[in-house]
Amino acid sequence: MLLRPPGVYRPQADTWLLAKAIEQAALPSEARVLDIGAGTGALSVAAARAGAAEVTAVDVSRRAVLATWFNTAVRGLPVRVRRGDALDVAAGRRFDVILANPPYVPCERPDVPDAGPRRAWDAGLDGRAMVNRVTALAPLLLAPRGLILIVHSQLCGVDRTLHQLRGGGLKASVVARAIEPFGPVMRGRVDFLERAGLIEPGQRHEQLVVIRGDRTEPPA
What we know:
Layout: H1 13-24, E1 32-36, H2 42-49, E2 54-59, H3 62-73, E3 79-83, H4 86-89, E4 95-100, H5 129-141, E5 142-153, H6 158-167, E6 171-181, H7 184-187, H8 190-195, E7 205-214
Parallel strand pairs: 1-2, 1-4, 2-3, 4-5
Antiparallel strand pairs: 5-7, 6-7
Helix pairs in contact: 1-2
């Protein structure tokens, strides 16, 4: 059970798909982990239970920070919780593992919200506003032989994510997939998604993917 205050992203299919990938990833011994957009802290819990020595969990939402702090502290897990933009908070540090379940739902506005619950899912016209930032900065934040696990919908462009990670020098591949029915947010946007050519007429499901990227060079 996880504390989830109103307005905090509810762990759902994408969360659990990524949590399973964490279990199967064989995290490096004594791994230092960055959890981007921690929400309730579900992925921080999964990483700590998978053997991480230290997890830094970051979210822009005060309520999410509180939820993550409570859900990890009550379990006695080695998680430090910070509020802010995760990629800014992490600047200048290196991590063995980066976990990201970023906002990835395409919306009719090109900008992203700076307040409210929509921050957890709205991600610009193509759904890649945060995904692009993560894939661009991950190679700079990963320690040698570190890895990133990122989950998003195939509507955002799986090949683009793979190309961006590989362009940053990482070995990248899809390690998990799941087909899920649209939730309330996606169902409310089917007209826009069809007009934008992101889904087929009548489509009411999406494929979720977990993509793994690895820095393969050994420590200097």
